[in-house]
Amino acid sequence: MAASDTLHPHPRPWMNLVGVCILVFCYGAAVWHTFSTRRQEKTGDQIVLRLAHWQLEAGIRDGLERMFRKFEDRYYQDTGRRVKIVQNGISERVYPQYVQTQCIGRTAPDLVEIGKYDSAYTTRFFLPLTVDVQKPNPYNAGTPLDGVAWADTFLDGMVSSLEPSNLEYYGAGLSTFTVRIFYNKRLMKEVLGTDEPPKTYREFLQVCETFRQWARKTGRADFVPIAAANYQVGLFRGQYTDAAALEWGLRHDRTYSGRFNGFWERLLTYADGEYDFRDPALRAGHEMLARLTAYFPPGFMSQDRMESGFRFTQGNAVFITSGSWDAMSYFVQADFPIGIMDFPLPGRDDPEFGRFVCGRAFESGEAGFRIGITKFTKHPDVALALLQFLTTPENNEELNRSFKWIPMVKGARPHPGIAAFMPNTRGFWGISPFSLWASDRCSLIYEQASWGFVEHKTTYDQFVGEYEANLPDALAVDLARTVMSSRDQIRQAGTGFSWNLGGRLFAGTLEPTPVRADSLREKAEMRTKYLWESQIGPLSTSCWLARWNEAVAKRQPRALKIQGRLSADLNLKEE
Amino acid sequence: MAKDISSERLRTGGWMLYLFILPSVLLIATFAYFPAANAMYRAFFRWNGSNIEEFTGLRNFRELLGWSPWTPLLWLLVLVWVALLVMTLGGWPERWKRRSPWLLAVLAGGAWAVFAGAAVMGADADARILNLPVQAAARWLATPVLCTFAGVLLRRFFAGRLAGVASAALLIFGFLSFFYHVMRATGDRILWSGFAVTFIFVTANIVKMVPSIATAVVIHRLKNSRWQYFYRVLFVIPMIIPGMVMLLLWKFFYDPTQGILNRLLNSTGIMALLQKLDGVFHWGVFSATSHPAWLGDANLVIPSLIFWGFPWVGVVGVLIYLAGLSSISTDVYEAADIDGVNWFTKFLHIELPLIMSQVRINLVLMVIGTLQDYGNILVILGNGGGPQGVAMVPGLYMFRNAFVEGYAGKGCAIGIILFFFILILTEINNRFVRVEK
């Protein structure tokens, strides 16, 4: 025995075991809980379905729980089988990683909210609902939508669920979302004497200025007219630059899609010298945005969405913009009445911006909160029944009213408090000239250069100068990525074609019975068809690349500048 | 005390000992060496982090380091510059001792003359070398040349330690400035701008080591052992506060409207002074109409990140220095007291030399940490590098390439470049930060 142990024998040696006992007990309890739950799921009569989503705003999970209980009762009445729906709310920040690791590990829940993660996972790990969306929703029996194809009961005809790469439908959207401006009615009444919101852009600026003066007079140093963070800049930009650049976008729309938001459009217009931020329309859009950011809190670009929401609900701002997804949170957290208004645009008579703005833009009302069924579910029929149950007019209305969102199904009415969020289906087609992809290099340099401009640290010309100085490098990076990505898709599809062609040709040899051979042949044919359809993207890339090669061959200075920065050979021929 | 194991013992029954260390070796190999080796391997691929993988040779490195017909010449210039710099600073070989500084000056001057000459003689503003107009290239080369000339002249005409240090600083800065401009012009502009920011952070972090050393010395010199213990505990407590809490506290500290910093500056009148100075120097940062946005202004974000954590008393650092200080024998202090040595001389000639091992290890850890770190910037400013991308450090750029843009292979290549920088800086540290035994 060591000398130190002899000198200081431990007074209570059993104390050492306490920690071990606690550890063993906790571990045992966890193991017991896991296995008992698994056993219940496997052997019990009850079917358990799990749903993962990222909607953690106030009231959403409670609303879902109520609808799940209603579905469980209805399903039991209809089939005599017990079902339990369990929801896993996952933080938005880690949601992509969660879904991707769960899918790769083949442990994904039965139902998963589609979005945030790489869209390739949807086609790979989710069940297509293409056949089901063409049949009527059985839960609509006896309603005005009885006998109507499920897809046609949605406001957007389920276009949002269509995956263009393989023309399959994945998931069903439960709500639609739009963006509006929330305002503090009590403050409006107190300072302006009325809670009527401003109607035009000039009025909006005037109201903001009045509130700024009021804050100065009353010594409210923390008060700003518009609560905003980096997140809100994108929302305002989407409204004002879109409004001003509508005609500009249509003029340069090379895909005839009614939009100017694709990489190839940006690249080729740049090469032709048409992509110029000094154009008066683009300048006007950015200037409109900058006039508003003058009423944002200082340093808003380094703040996040939670901070701006907190500022508004604490009464330290009169306006905030966000989507209908935040309505419930603001209603619950604020102790003042909240009004909702549309973005006030300049009228045609506005001396400065009027000539650029055609009016309100059309809102497509695309589906959000889209729930898909994963290939890992053991009960695809029950999962489908749940989606169909949630998308009847009655249930969709009840669900969305409970958390104050906009219903997605025809005939379902929104909560009266958020009627202002209903999509505006009359107006000009939105062009989205600045819908920048989060992951591309052009969006990075745009965000970096525009930071100083929206914060009023640099002028518009300085911003454009900085952006254009870095644009050739960024376009070269994005061009290489786009072409390489298409090449990868073609290669992957090539393997798929060979595999399925083999299945089609040798089905009789591969399968022992004629029935199974026919089945294999049929599957191989179907997959080949889908693979062929998914080649649209890479084929269009080939066409665009030919256009790009023309620009280089014509020795257009901007095209040569980008070409000089490319490290990869884009026209590499496969051996 | 542990006994040495004889080779005979290892041969006969030593396999059991190997068995004991086997789990550790396996774990380290699996979770440390394998990922590192794998990252090195992937750096030569176009890899998206999952299913797309294509061997591309040195393309990732070519994109990051740059490749043009001028590149071999430039790298030759860089290598000669480094060789002359090392010879000048090291003072060897003996027969080159006097010549090498002048050769360095001639090299820098010659490089500048070529660019300036091309700018004047060519008279073609669009002529481009290194992706830059020749005139611009001649302009940016002026800083390294002036620094090198000043360093050489200082070394030649002034004696003394201070002149030596100043000369070395000028020569090193001259080279780094040249290297930065070359790499930024030929290679990936974002990456090399990031290295410049990291250089600023490393320099600032060296200064930020001083408060930890000072605090450790003050605690060490406390006569009362109870108080000494109390302060040691006081320094351990912050270790249990999660880093994220500290981060949020500092973010709130910098908040433009509600943050403590702006309130403090306003209430003490410093803000008014800064506004006046801004009026004179035209920084465009401090104005009477709005509060400075410390983390939202491209001019303020780097100083704010440097100021982060003031007074920069690192908990781990203090404990490491204290461990070193506690091993100094009391006899040394008694002898110093008898000789009438004052408190600062004690620090300079007794304590600092005897804790240089600890200083060196902290320096290495700091350099590695600073070059690799990007977590705080990612959380505070996002993956775009903050206002105008000024805080896009190499680590953050590596993260963005790998996890946002899907260029995981390129991210691995950035990791390798970082690895080499860390290796070089660690070697410099080991060679030049001398430990008195």
Question: Care to give the gist of this entry?
Answer:
The complex is a heterodimer of chains A (575) and B (437). By secondary structure, chain A is α/β, with parallel strands linked by helices.
Describe the structure.
The complex is a heterodimer of chains A (575) and B (437). With 575 residues, chain A is α/β, with parallel strands linked by helices. Chain A contains 21 helices and 12 strands. Chain A has helices at 3-7, 15-43, 60-79, 95-104, 120-125, 185-192, 201-218, 230-244, 246-251, 263-271, 280-293, 305-313, 327-333, 380-390, 393-402, 441-454, 460-505, 507-510, 514-533, 536-553, 557-564; strands spanning 47-53, 83-89, 111-113, 162-163, 168-169, 172-176, 179-184, 224-227, 317-323, 338-341, 367-373, 406-407. In chain A, the strands form 3 sheets. A 6-stranded mixed sheet of chain A has the order 2-1-3-11-6-12. The termini of chain A are far apart. The relative contact order of chain A is 0.12. Mean pLDDT of chain A is 87; it is low at 1-7. Chain B is an all-alpha fold and 437 residues long. Helix content of chain B is 71%, strand content 2%. Chain B contains 22 helices and 4 strands. Chain B has helices at residues 7-12, 15-42, 59-65, 71-90, 99-122, 134-140, 142-157, 161-186, 189-207, 210-221, 225-236, 243-253, 260-268, 270-281, 301-307, 315-326, 330-338, 343-354, 356-372, 375-381, 394-404, 408-432, and strands at 45-47, 53-55, 128-129, 132-133. In chain B, strands 1-2 form a two-stranded antiparallel sheet. The model of chain B has no long low-confidence stretch (mean pLDDT 86). The chains are: A alpha/beta (575), B mainly alpha (437). Chains A and B meet through helix 16 and helix 17 of A and helix 3 of B.
